[in-house]
Design a protein that fits this description.
The protein is α/β, with parallel strands linked by helices. The protein is built from 17 helices and 11 strands. α2 runs antiparallel to α3 and α10 packs across α12.
């Protein structure tokens, strides 16, 4: 393993700017690491070796010519395989889009390229981001570098595992119900869900459009902030994009002072169903913040326990709508078209072959919830609960600056468990779902190891467009808590 792969993105960028190392050297080091370990981790679905090196050489040429470079110029980045990238497959982990190469770039892809970052390749995910373990990918599961028999979380387990396995210094993810924060928690990394609309969704294959939010994944708070700064900002191509400046997340990530901040601890997120080791690390993190001068307040959000049920009606309803385009006529894989079968038969055969079990399950559930006679009872009621959860947040933020909870109730579970016990997978997002329903920013930060030696994450939530508060508290946690970063595997420790 090259020492370059263990450096932060901020440090790598500084070395590249001064010419102490080249972007090509840094990129080669990470490509070598992928070649050495990814047969065990399976974080990547596609490694874009030749183009990554070509981009790195261009960055080096710009530096030698004295051209201005961005804060992460020359730094490699891994991209979740639901963001469009011209010339590379964008499969969404599904046979439905196997080998599809988009003719345009996603907004986040454009912005990392414009910032002279180097895209290493596309990372594995649950099929169309539907799952909590990265096991529903049609191309096989990703493994957690802390313990290869365990999941790296989902849906963005590939991006999180790539960070923990030192295959990339930063990565792009998307968060619909916790798909950035939950993998960050169980891999000992940092994951941020920005304010809804704070990072453009243009070119991100939609799962649930009112919930999906691209965001940064990293090993340090500052690295996440630097990437957030690159990808954030208004985009007129996204109707939900917020026309407002990106909060100063980089300054916040460099300001770990929480003295005088009021931090609310969510009363409802604890107790039954939460591992004792997870709760201990969480309370230790809260105590550390109190010791640094923060005021800790217990806050009740009575409707939060209903978020899981509301989410699993709203999300599949939007899935049913978004997946309708993959009908073998306009988009997606086509099978069974021998000239003798009806359009309906071809659609049925193509969707049956192209979609996996979890995608089909959510389409069926969502279609039922939206059907005549059930719309008001299910989807309509879930949207009312969503409003109550938003009101819970508003009431809480009238008295505290941020809210905190464990990121997940448990540490990483064993591969196979979420597929045999669906609720075990669904409940992994118990703490993260409310912030997606409300559209507020939230992040997961490492809080040490549980009793079983696996990482624990703590979650920080803030009001809309107060993303900087998430980074400020995350920076304080990073400074206060003992660093616990994973080598590649247990055997290597």
């Amino acid at each position: 393993m090259s020492s370059l792969t263990s450096l932060t993105a901020a440090r790598l960028a500084a070395l590249i700017r001064t010419g102490e190392v080249s972007s090509e050297e840094v990129t080669r080091a990470h490509l070598d690491q992928i070649a050495a370990v990814d047969d065990r981790v399976h974080a990547f679905l596609h490694v874009d070796t030749d183009r990554a090196l070509e981009v790195a050489r261009r960055v080096d040429a710009k530096r030698r010519a004295g051209a201005p470079l961005g804060p992460l110029a020359g730094v490699p980045v891994a991209v979740k395989d639901l963001f469009a990238y011209v010339g590379a497959p964008t499969t969404c982990g599904s046979r439905m889009l196997e080998n599809w190469c988009p003719p345009y770039n996603a907004a986040v892809t454009e912005r990392v390229l414009a910032a002279d970052m180097v895209i290493l390749g596309k990372t594995n995910l649950d099929e169309f981001a539907m799952g909590s373990s990265t096991e529903t990918s049609a191309f096989g599961p990703t493994h957690n570098p802390w313990d290869l028999a365990r999941v790296p979380g989902g849906s963005g387990g590939g991006s999180a595992a790539a960070l923990a396995a030192l295959e990339a210094p930063v990565a792009l993810g998307s968060d619909t119900g916790g798909s950035i924060r939950q993998p960050a928690a169980v891999t000992g990394t940092v994951g941020i869900k920005p304010t809804y609309g704070g990072v453009s969704r243009y070119g991100a294959v939609a799962m649930a459009s009112s919930l999906d939010q691209p965001g940064p994944c990293a090993r340090t708070v500052l690295d996440a902030a630097l990437l957030h700064q690159v990808i954030g900002g208004y985009d007129p191509r996204d109707a939900t994009s917020i026309d407002a400046p990106v909060p100063d997340v980089v300054a916040a990530a460099q300001s770990p002072d929480v003295a005088g901040m009021k931090i609310g601890v969510v009363k409802e997120f604890g107790g039954e169903g939460f591992e004792p080791g997870v709760e201990r690390r969480f309370h230790e993190a809260v105590a550390a913040l109190a010791g640094a001068g923060a005021e800790i307040v217990e806050v009740s959000c009575p409707y939060f326990p209903l978020a899981l049920g509301a989410y699993y009606l709203i999300m599949p309803s939007e899935v049913s709508s978004n997946m309708a385009r993959f009908d073998a006529m306009r988009y997606g894989r086509r099978v069974g078209d021998d000239g003798t079968r009806s359009v309906e038969d071809v659609m049925r055969a193509s969707r049956g072959a192209g979609f996996g079990a979890e995608v089909k399950r959510r389409i069926i559930l969502g279609t039922y919830a939206l059907s005549s006679g059930y719309y008001d009872a299910y989807y309509g009621s879930a949207q009312k609960v969503r409003t109550l959860i938003i009101q819970d947040f508003r009431a809480a933020f009238s008295t505290v600056d941020v809210l905190m909870s464990p990121s997940t109730p448990t540490t990483a579970i064993r591969i196979g468990e979420p597929l045999t016990d669906l609720m075990a997978g669904y409940k992994a997002d118990l703490c993260t779902i409310p912030s997606n329903l409300a559209g507020i920013p939230a992040g997961s930060f490492p809080a040490g190891l549980s009793d079983n030696g696996l990482p624990v994450g703590v979650q920080v939530m803030a009001p809309v467009l107060a993303d900087d508060r998430v980074y400020r508290v995350g920076s304080a946690l990073e400074a206060l808590l003992e660093p616990r970063f994973a080598p590649l595997t247990k055997e290597a420790r």
